[in-house]
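pinned: reference chain
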Amino acid sequence: MLVRLRSRPPHMVLTIAALCMLIVLVGCSSSGGPAPTSPSPSAPSSASVSEERIVIKDFRFEPVDLAVAPGARVSVVNEDSASHTVTAKAADAFDTGTVKGGETATFTAPPAAGTYRYVCSIHPSMTGTLTVR
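pinned: its structure tokens
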């Protein structure tokens, strides 16, 4: 459809141009897919859960002292050939169970702020501290 703009009054030309731009903008902004939704309040978002890491190497925890947020996921990477554990001295705070050499395990940091000392239950000379804040 051709519109002759020269024979129209200036305010009509502006109105037609504005309508054309509106049609183009509306057409470009439509994704055609469902509207984005936000996560339900009860479901934790991936952005709210941090992931930290403890590496076991040469019969030591690296880092020895780790600070994390409450409920953070902590990965334990065993780079030794021997099996190890990351076991909190406080009962039921966290425990990876046995992590064989070359394997990785995870645990969830306690929800309560505090300092949690941990040990390798197989090699008690291996110790570390997890600070939840």
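why pinned: Confidence is low (pLDDT under 50) at residues 28-47. The longest helix spans residues 10-29.
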